[in-house]
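Predict structure. Chain length: 279.
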Amino acid sequence: MDLAEISRVMRRRWYVLLPGLLLTAVLTAAVYLLVPVEYRSQSTVTLLNSSKATVAFDGNPFLSTQASLTGMADGLARNLNSDGSAADLKARGVTGKHEAMIADNAQGPFMWLSVTGTDPAAVLTSDELLTSYAEERLRQFQAQQSVAPEAMIRMTTIVPPQKPQAQTKTRLQYLVMAGVLGFVLSLVATFFVEARRRTAGRHRPAAGTGGAAEAEAQAQAQAQAQAQAEAEAGTQADAKAEAEAHPDARDPAGPAVGRSAPGGDPAAVHAAASPAGTP
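Prediction complete.
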């Protein structure tokens, strides 16, 4: 089936396709209204070496980087994503979904702290709370290990929580799925009806020719019956005419053989019927 045939079927079965497209439009509008737009705010922080470890660098923490800082950043991110931290953040007023992770292509212990939600103002506030909570958790880890304050790893904010940005990808995906699904189902229904109609058409005469074909068949049957009746009538007439032309043909012995004519002599009849020389 080529594109031209598909187009013809769609035009011929428009009464099936059109309601399907209308339902698809309604479904897409419902998805647009029911699926809210999500917003995301993100901050970037980094871990710095302790003030004691930066003495040799004149107190500049950016000149003193160690691989252990990246390991500490990974551990802190895992802790911030735990259920316990989620409960603490919720108690502090954080709404939406938060996430902590090592920054992509990072050249050091950089972390991304992000919050996603449907209220832009709440998202921004929640990201600020998450950033401050991350620094607090870092101090708690080291305090639990009895680390001296001058030897503690520090945290600083590189990029503060940003203005929430709309995340339309998920919503757009749902809209595309609803539109494509509705359109495909409409086409399936259209071609299903077309197939059913074609199948039914093969089992009955075409419109406009069924009555003529039936009348022709009846006329042929009547002609045959009339011809047969005429043949039978001709046969009976021939038989009657032959019987009238030869009335004695029905008695093989003839009317005089073995009979005595009225008023005749039976002996004369016997002598006439007997062969010559027979007494």
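Summary: The chain has a mean pLDDT of 82.
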